[in-house]
Hints:
Elements: E1 5-11, H1 16-27, E2 32-39, H2 46-52, E3 57-59, H3 62-70, H4 84-90, H5 100-121, E4 128-131, H6 140-146, E5 155-159, H7 171-177, E6 182-189, E7 199-206, H8 213-236, E8 240-248, E9 254-262
Parallel strand pairs: 1-2, 1-4, 2-3, 4-5
Antiparallel strand pairs: 5-6, 6-7, 8-9
Bound molecules: 5-O-phosphono-beta-D-ribofuranosylamine.
Amino acid sequence: MSTKIRIGALISGSGTNLQAIINGCERGTLSGQMVFVGSDNPDAAGLERAKRSGIPTFVVDYASIIQKCSKSSQKLSAPPDFNLDEAISKQDFFGSKADAEKTKFFLTTRAIAEAQLLSRMKAFAYDLLVLAGFMRNLTPYFIDRVNTKRSEPRIMNIHPSLLPAFPGIDGYGETFRYGCKVGGCTVHFIDYGEDTGPIIGQRAFQISDTDTVDSIREKGLKLEWQLYPECIQLYAEGRLKTKKMTYTSGGGQKNERTIVRIEPPTS
Ligand code: GRF
């Protein structure tokens, strides 16, 4: 068994994935210790789950920050170390044709909230940050301050679809509406786009004609609760290596792709 890693989590809602990770830590199937749980939503039920296990919690209320910033009377006061041009050039949420004011508002308001998250997180030493149903996109401002070593990403997310299909907030709903025969979930590292980072693990399930959105979500969540702790355990064992690989396409053109290689266990 590897040494225990210190895990921080961000949540927005019910926290069933958070619970699966806490359970893994408590039962010893996961070599980790949950050191904090933060939420953008003061009413997230997952906060109670953390408290029950004696894990420190905090809230940065995104909705009220964004609402305050929307009032024209209130000037946006970005963090002093925030560089808007840098954030615009790195972000991958909006294309070059996007409304400039909208992009600026998004990146600035999120950086204001993210600076508060970072300041709360500063109180805790952590090795890995897991997003467990955290329904906010993190911007380059936040990501660069957590991923201090460029080649070693340390923010993981779980997404309710087989990426790259159906990024965004309603993976299971979109899987259902599209009439897919297979659904699934994906654990990946975070990058500057929406659900675009390098994939660590995926799990799939069959969908039949009689399935509903609810039954699809139920099947998916059951797999999420297995997959997320397993991927975190691979991280704890130091077995996840993010690599840029080149390949040659049909026309002989050289391209690059990023993969997460799972190294064999040592010993
Ligand atoms: C999960 O389906 C997860 O994939 C998605 O949000 C949902 C969170 O559920 N990102 P819970 O809060 O872990 O119960």
